[in-house]
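Exam prep: given the inputs below (a chain plus zinc ion), describe the expected output before reading on.
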Amino acid sequence: MSFWEVPGCKSGVVTGDVAWGILKDAKEKGYAIPAFNCTGTSSVNAVLEAGKTLNRPVMIQFSEGGSCFFAGKGLPNDKGVLQASILGAVVGAHYVRHISPAYGVPVFVHSDHCAKKLLPWFDGMLEADEGYFKEHGEPLFSSHMLDLSEEPDEENIDICKKYLTRMAPMNQILEMEIGITGGVEDGVDNSSVSKDKLYSTPEDVYKVWEALSPISEKFTIAAAFGNVHGVYKAGNVKLQPALLGDFQKHCGEKVGKENPYFFVFHGGSGSEKSDIALALGNGVVKMNVDTDTQWAYWEGLLKFYKAKEGWLQGQIGNPDGPEKPNKSYYDPRKWVRESEITMTARVQESCSDLKNVNA
Ligand SMILES: [Zn+2]
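Solution:
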């Protein structure tokens, strides 16, 4: 069975039972859908182009900082209000909704890490979801992530309960984090967090299940198994995707169901392919990719500049002659496109790592 046979599957943004059905399909078949952090229409298009080429579902996500960037760094974004981040995320989701049917594949639109101090951003997005739901019978976004992993577990889970209760009537998916993803991303620095927080326990994860499953089945868990944001030299934190299997077994025995959890893999950049494969086998249905596609986007431009350096030093004059114009080299469509091409290729590589490819 192809993911296209999930009831209601269509090209463009999917939400609710369709989105959840695709995640179930992923878990059953042992693939995961990569989620790429996007900061503007260019990176969104690069992800969609890869999805179209592969004829596979993709996920587009906006971090709080990425949302603000989408709206434009020239706008005010006051602490505790985050008006530009709200606007950017909403505009980004609308852009994805309008453009993605043209690319012919199912697309999830998601928001990334939301810490406690960023909750006004979350509330703003949910207001937009509720407004969209009133008109169209589905939320604007497929899913949102709450990341209260820096708070005590009890508070983390309580806030997740509260928000999932608000999201459930819209059939929207909540991603939550328990334990901490190490490293640095979107300006959040967890590189000095104590080591035990970097590994969740079966009991920690089961507490999430107990609290959230009575509200809705539509939640995913970013459990910590030694994952770290960014690409670093091998350090003393070791990725242990086998832990995810222990969590599944622990919960599965209690609820009488095999592999009950839907896991999300954060900090997958630079991971060994064998670790990714083990994570997929243990119920990872989504993996976030940011650092690797950031590099790919830059690398396209870097290579272009190196190859065309002589044509990029002024508006007139290049190795072909002192009066030759350079407009066709410095036109942003030329060099932004070079970034898109290398990013699209990297998106395809992530899809292939996650077995999100047609056999
Ligand atoms: Zn993350």
